[in-house]
From TrEMBL:
Its main location: membrane. It is found in: Membrane. The chain crosses the membrane at residues 12-34, 40-58, 70-92, 98-116, 128-145, 165-183, 195-217, 223-244, 256-275, 281-298. Pfam families: EamA (PF00892). This is EamA domain-containing protein.
């Protein structure tokens, strides 16, 4: 029986910081590549490669992925939610900035904090922790208001509100995926099998969605686009998500989810430095708010 910890310790925090730094960069990679490789075809290539890597890793480590353990139904549900999240991310990045999408995507901790305690009592938050989530929520709302308030001096991307809405939908699906994993028999699975459900289903669903949108499939892309895909698949969809699944098995999901608010900070910095995106006052204040939220949610009693 895996021993769960009640708080994030130093190794968990270090792993989260590394993962959040890459997840912030990951949205930049997708955004930079989406104009060269169609979004859902890009997702198809990514998840097919990551699934292959996971199969090879599991075989090398001797981890069984296909044993009957009664988790097929809930595993497929988690996989469909995971696939829906990334379909929204890839399509949303066509219409909104990478830094904005990442801020809205991290509405997921609110979904986890509101719903998970109904199934797992150990995940209940105290008053001060709820205050932290509330501050973070107001910060996200402030950033979202930028899409409605346009004084003529800023120039939102075409269909920006649609991209923002897709990002919020992705956050909802991410939160529901965490809820399914933590609140079901999947909580006892190995990190490899938990991730396999999600990657394999996404690898099957993404090409169908790509065909439905009429995307053109090709393998004739420049080297930098393939390098982006390699990072998205190898580091993002395989290594960092495997670490995330392992942490979900060992640490409180509510605290893990709140800590990932660091990712918008990394995404904003990467967007400003790599894509020349504008650092607006609303986004800057939002990122200060989510940082304060992290501190409050992870304070010990």
């Amino acid at each position: 029986m895996t021993q769960r910890k009640s708080h994030l310790d130093t190794p968990a925090i270090a792993l989260l910081i590394v993962c959040c730094a890459f997840w912030g960069l990951q949205q930049i990679l997708i955004k930079a590549t989406v104009g060269t490789i169609p979004p859902l075809w890009q997702a198809t290539l990514r998840f097919a490669a990551a699934t292959t890597l996971l199969l090879l890793w599991s075989r090398w480590r001797g981890v069984a992925l296909f044993t009957r353990d009664g988790t097929l139904g809930v595993g497929l549900l988690a996989g469909l939610l995971f696939a829906a999240e990334f379909i929204c991310i890839y399509l949303g990045l066509r219409d909104t900035h990478a830094s904005r999408l990442t801020v809205f995507l991290y509405s997921a901790p609110f979904v986890v904090a509101l719903l998970l305690p109904r199934f797992v009592h150990a995940e209940r938050l105290r008053g001060l922790q709820w205050l932290g989530l509330g501050i973070a929520f107001l910060a996200v709302a402030l950033a979202f208001s930028e899409g409605f308030l346009h004084d003529g001096t800023q120039h939102p991307a075409p269909n920006q509100l649609r991209g923002d809405a897709l990002a919020l939908a992705a956050g909802l699906f991410w939160g529901l995926t965490t809820l399914v994993i933590r609140g079901s028999r999947m909580a006892t699975l190995s990190a490899e099998k938990t991730l396999f459900y999600q990657l394999a289903v996404s690898a099957a669903v993404s090409p169908l969605a790509s065909l439905a949108l009429g995307e053109a499939w090709s393998f004739d892309y420049p080297a930098w686009a393939w390098a982006s895909l390699a990072l998205q698949a190898g580091v993002g969809a395989f290594a960092s998500y495997l670490v995330w699944m392992w942490m979900l098995r060992h640490y409180p999901a509510t605290q893990l989810s709140s800590f990932t608010f660091l990712t918008p900070l990394c995404a904003l910095l990467a967007g400003v430095l790599l894509l020349g995106e504008t650092l607006t006052l609303q986004l800057a204040l939002a990122l200060v708010g989510v940082t304060l939220g992290i501190v409050l949610v992870n304070r010990k009693a």
